[in-house]
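Q: A reviewer asked whether we had any structural model of the full assembly, not just the individual parts. We don't, so I'm hoping you can provide one. Inputs are below.
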Amino acid sequence: MAVPAEWPDQVLDVAELRAGGWRPAPFRQFLFKVHSRCNLSCDYCYVYEMADQSWRSRPATMPAEVVSQAAMRIAEHVRRHDLDEVRIILHGGEPLMAGPDFFAVLAAELRQAIPPGCAVELGMQTNAVLLSERFLDVLLANRIRVGVSLDGGREANDRHRAYASGRGSYDLVAAALRRLRTPPYDSLYTGILCTIDLENDPVETYEALLRFSPPSTDFLLPHGNWSCPPPGRPAASAVTPYADWLIAIFDRWYSAPARETGIRFFEEIINLVLGGASHVESIGLTPVTLVVIEADGSLEQVDSLKAAYDGAPATGLSVFGNSFDDALELPAIAARQVGADGLCATCQRCEVRDICGAGLYPHRYRQGSGFLNPSVYCPDLLRLIRHIRDRVRADISELVMT
Amino acid sequence: MAGETASTPTAMPDVTRISLDEVRALDDSVLAHSLRRFQRESREVKDPISAFGAFNQHSSSPW
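A: Here is a predicted structure for the entire assembly that you could use as a starting point for your response.
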């Protein structure tokens, strides 16, 4: 039996888009999967615990020839599109498992390959359990900034973020965060990412993160979609457990007399409400300009698509046989660059369309129809956006009147 | 689905009526930070969608 085409693959016609005047935006962010294994065994991880199992066939550490070839391809893309800045994001698995020397070589190779007129910014997202002073020295010497994953206090964090043995990671992460906050390493500290667990008290979770004085934080919705709903979020139900959870934090954060830290998701919504643009893929209609380079050199779409179905992020392209421009021609990449034209009819009619942008792309997936759907978090996103919009509007009204 | 029960929102007041000096004089609140960012980006960036399309961040990566 023929498998029906799912949007956008084999449905979105990039040639037609081009004929209509649309042009792809070049990639500016390159996410390197430098290590495809992890020393933790977090039960919600989209890399290991969800539909896509492609990590099993990949090399553990990105080989030197993949790093060299990827650097050459980025340099080619920079020259072709005359880019003045690119960002390299080092990710995994757990990136620190690649070892400190790997990062010194990678940073040198990238900075050497990319034309001098283009700034190269390097950052990493890590679970931090291996973040020793030796590692920090290497990261400092190579100007690689560090974001850390932590889900709150000890009990909240260790419920999911644990070793395969069941031992929690909190104490090691807390010690690493203390090192990272200490000069001269504090210049590398970008912030903390926290995945939401409805079982945790939201304000306690926020305040647990504040103990580490993060320059910025973000609260991530657990991955899920219409065919495989997120925990506590039945598909097609009007309940809003995630909005309720986030609103408790928003009110605590927004009402503080002085800003205690940045909360990226909220700040992006406020900026959109004011009439600005989003800087993050999880909200708004800003074109996504990120591509993933797997440890074996495969080019993939955004890695969180691994949550949707086995093989979801695959493009069939590789740094060895393809340029990044080849990837720009893929319907799956174009779908995330066409703004409101990439949204379903329900989203098109929605009052918060341009703020929400249907949320994170992987959360729109439904088996059979693909990604042309609202987010499985639609009721939560609508309630959260309305709440933030109403609070900001009331305050702005007062300012404008005085 | 909630998205299908959209209401008509009240318009946001014109943020540009708040002057640069007024925003600078605001306190250190979240709103003040947000207004400063909005004004900075409005001044510096002619095409914000294009500019931030350049760097809209991966949901699970550094800022």
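A: Points you may want to mention in the reply: Chain A touches chain B through 79 residues (CB under 8 Å). Chain A has 14 helices and ten strands.
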